[in-house]
Amino acid sequence: MNIIEAKDVSVTFESFGQEIKAVDHVDFFLPEGQTVGIVGESGSGKSTFARVLSGLQLPTSGSVTYLGNPIQVGKQTYPGKLRKDVQMVFQDPYGSLNPRMRIVKAIAEAIRQHQDLDKKSAIEAGVRLLESMGISGDDAYKYPRSLSGGQRQRASVARALSAQPRLLIADEPTSAIDQSAQSQLLGLFNNLIKEGLSIVLVSHDLSVIRYLSDYVYVMKDGVFVESGKTEDIFNNPKEEYTKKLIASIPGRKL
Questions:
Q1: What single DSSP character describes residue 219?
Q2: N or C: which end of the chain has fewer CB within 10 A?
Q3: Which of 147, 150, 61, 48 is nearest to 106 (CA)?
Q4: What is the distance between the alpha carbons of residues 183 and 202, in angstroms, rounded to a whole number?
């Protein structure tokens, strides 16, 4: 069963009196328990489309369904209890972390929003969740500004997971952190995949996409120009644009 599916989705923005199509009549599906990658150059429309899937951006036309039901009711998306099922991790973790709140308290607050726990139990659950992200001891009680970029990104993943979601949408989660932190974060995502979490992974980094994804969509100018199983896309790309992207991977030649 597809956990999320998009049909004929378009997103159009107005800019200086002109219409710009950020996403242009695309179809997409993610089977439950799998990881699907969306790859493309900066400005290709992939982040806008990720926001549509997460309910943060309303499409100009087309529809998105979650477990077969429309995510949009009027102008509201993922109404009621569905909101906790779909969580998003952003490239900049400051978007989901309160700079005035210690990390563990921010996670505990999110846990209390979604789970029936008292304050003490929520703190304890927050500590355990952060420990599973590799953030423990004194680091759990620091403010976001006192953590490294990799720690902040893992803390933002912890905050998303505090809702116990069925679907995680990650938009360029590794692009703003160093190589060591990337390796830690990829290991974390790999563990989440093994636990059965469904993931939409958006990235311009094809090595990340190849490592984690079962299936890949290649986006250019708001359109999916190619899609297929990950190994098929990487070993036998059909579109020149895809070949160009794969050739840009360090040490990789077609």
A1: E
A2: N
A3: 147
A4: 17
Alpha-carbon distance 141 to 113, whole Å? Answer: 20
233 neighbors 221 (Cβ within 8 angstroms): no
**Cα–Cα distance measured from residue 28 to residue 163, given in angstroms and rounded to the nearest whole number:** 25
One-letter amino acid for residue 223 of the chain: V
Q: What are the C-alpha distances in Å from 112 to residues 88, 99, 201?
A: 18, 19, 27
DSSP string, 128-143: HHHHHTT--GGGGGS-
Q: Which two tokens stand for residue 48?
A: 């806008």
Based on the number of CB atoms within 10 Å of its own CB, is 62 exposed (0-12), middle (13-18) or buried (19 or more)? middle
Q: How far is the C-alpha of 68 from the C-alpha of 252, rounded, in Å?
A: 40
Handedness of CA 113, 200, 176, 129 (dihedral sign): positive
Q: Which tokens hold the place of 157?
A: 């993943």
Q: SS3 for 61?
A: strand
Length of the chain: 254
Supply the DSSP string of 19-35, one letter for each residue. Answer: EEEEEEEEEEEEETT-E
What are the backbone angles phi and psi of residue 71, rounded to the nearest 5°?
Answer: -80, -15
Helix (H) or strand (E) holding 193: helix 179-194
Give the model's confidence band at 165: pLDDT under 50 very low, under 70 low, under 90 confident, else very high: very high
The pTM (predicted TM-score) of the whole model is 0.89
pLDDT for the residue 254: 45
